[in-house]
Each structure stands twice: as structure tokens, then as C-alpha cells.
Amino acid sequence: MAGLYLHVPFCRQACHYCDFHFSTQTKHMADLVDAMVRESHLRLSSDPRWKDQTFTTLYLGGGTPSILPPDLLEALVSGVLTAVGQDASDFREVTLEANPEDMTKAQIQTWLGLGVTRLSLGVQSFHDETLAWMNRAHTGVQAERAIRLAHDLGVKAMTLDLIYGVPTSRDWNDDIARATALPTQHLSAYALTVEPGTVLGTRVERGAEQPAPDARTAEEYHRLCDAMAAQGWSHYETSNWAAPKPSQGHHASQHNSAYWSGAPYLALGPGAHGFLDSTRYANVSNNPRYIQAIRQGTLLDQREALTARDRYNELVMTGLRTAVGISPEELRRATGVRPKDVDGEAWTRALNRGRLVEHQPGWFRIPERDWITGDQVASSLFAVD
Known about the structure:
Number of domains: 2
Number of helices: 14
Number of strands: 14
Distance between the termini: 33 Å
Largest sheet: 9 strands, mixed
Mean pLDDT: 95
Order of helices and strands: EHEHEHEHHEHEHHEEHEEEHEHHHEEH
CATH class of the largest domain: Alpha Beta
Strand order of the largest sheet: 7-8-6-5-4-3-2-1-9
Radius of gyration: 21 Å
CATH superfamily of the largest domain: Aldolase class I
């Protein structure tokens, strides 16, 4: 079973902190959609292993897929599904990333008609001054109205994104309260990261901006953890919470959960990254070059053959970001080694210091209080030269 990811690299405007591949030049949308459909055929014909995969989740990300006009979105989805020989009804989960300013009644009904079952909403904050500082195109009230509209129109699963550790006057408690008061079933929250080459990165480099202190970022993260726990939400991954689903577990993202478990995923579009068996590829992050190459029948990507050590390190990193954690025996079956074989002292030290705990027989995780610095624990267990 595999995931299918479509990277739609268009945005109305550039968020000041974002370093994902996107373009605000939208006049070539139709050409890009055509190229993505063509890429789906090229991928399947160039590597027959993809034809043995059953795709169980579909995720439209970006960029901003909700910016696509209905006819182009329909052409993209139907074209790719024809290539893989599946229907939208075959998927356990079909997610579309959307911004509040795109969420009209007509658009939402179009998405539902295409088989979308889940919306991932780029809210980031409900504080208007903070949204303006980020260069977001919506207001807090607009975000609330859009979410309630989607709920009223029958969208049964919605997740919203928030960003913490922002150096503005935003009241983090207010953002949490407004987010949890909405009819959503999932929340993702990420620390603001200053990335080189972004507007924010340039401002910080010039001394015109100062990032929030690390202590404030950590305090806001723990405050969110406490608030979500008080409401009974499942903190199933470092940055993700799922609302309880009576008698059915919880509303975790099935597509993203597959990433963290090391499942294969076919990714299409400029800047998209895909993975199958021990091979990872990354498409060129340039829309014109991508379109030109695909028209010529060429996959313009960089590929990496992962070693057993690479897979071990990745599975440790992603596993320790989750509540499930890692199993030394499962790691051995997948990669040939266990953590104590790689560095017995580091493994014992993490256990003795409480940085790792055995939460069920044979499975170890990082305690929630340490998740914000969990990557340090994971990296201490890496296999290195």
C-alpha cells in the first residue's frame, strides 16, 4: 500500500517564512497540470514497481491546491487517477490543502464532488496583525467562517495548522481557544523556523527582526500540549493532535502517518519528493524546467539510493517523532541492526536518563515533555561513519 502526493506549486502571495517550492505566477497553471498528468504516466512506465502498488491515500499539497480553478483541479485528479487505474472512492483518505480565502461554497462543493474527504487548512493564527506580519491573505474571522462553512456543507474531516514561537504580540492562548472551538478534528502546530532565502530570513540576517526566544517557543509548545490533553485529544506525533473518535480510535492523518512509518509514496509535480523501496527522488524545483522536461518525456529529478544505514537512521528519526516510537526488533528486521548494535552506550544512556521509555513491551518512545527536543535524542542513536 502506498500514498499518492500531488504538489501544486502556486500561491496567491508569498508567506514571509515559507521555503517550500511555489510560484505566485499563475498564468501557466494549465501547462503545469498537463505536465503533472504526463509525469504520472512517465513514472509508472519508467519503474514497473509502481504498478504493483495500491494507492490508499491521496494528498494534494503545495503551494496552495485550493487556488486551482475547478476545471484544472478536476483535470489533475482525474488524469492522475486514470494513470494509476484507480477511482477516488478507492482511497481511504483524500486530503486537499486549502487557504481560508479560497473557501467559497462553490469551491468546497467542487472539492467534495471530486472525492475530497479531508481539508488541511493553512490558518497559522487568528490574530490579524500576526497574519499580516506573516503576509497571509486571510483574517482570523475569515478563517473561522470558512471552517464553519465547510462543516455546514458536509466536510467531515478538517485539520488546521498553527504556528507557535512567533515574535509578535499575538495571544497564544487566544489562538488555541479559537482553534479548538471550531468543528475540526485535527490540529498541526509547528515552531516558526527562520529559513535562509525567505523574507523573514533576510530580515533576521540584517538585524531588522529578532526571532522569539527559545524559552518562549518551548513554553508555547508545552502550553498547547496541556490544552489539547485537557480536551482529550491524542498527541500522536510531535506536531500533530487528533480529536477522539468514539469507538473508532482517532482522526489521525493516514497519509502523513504512512510517511512516518516508511511506506512508499508516489509524488508528482515540481519540487515533489517520492520514495519507493530504497530509492528516493526529488523533482526539479523550477516550474518552466519541469514542464519542458516532461513535454520531452524526461523525468528531471535527483535520485538517491538509500543504504541500510540510511534507512535505519530515517526510521529512528521518524519513529521517535511519534507516540508509537520504535521497536529495536522491527528495526532489525527492516535494516539488519538494532540501536544497541549501533551504539550500545547511547541506547543505555537514553534509557537511564529517561529520554526513552518503554511504553509497551518492546516499543520505546520519547516522553511527551521532551518531544520538542526529540530530534536530539534520535540523532544520538544514529549510525554514523
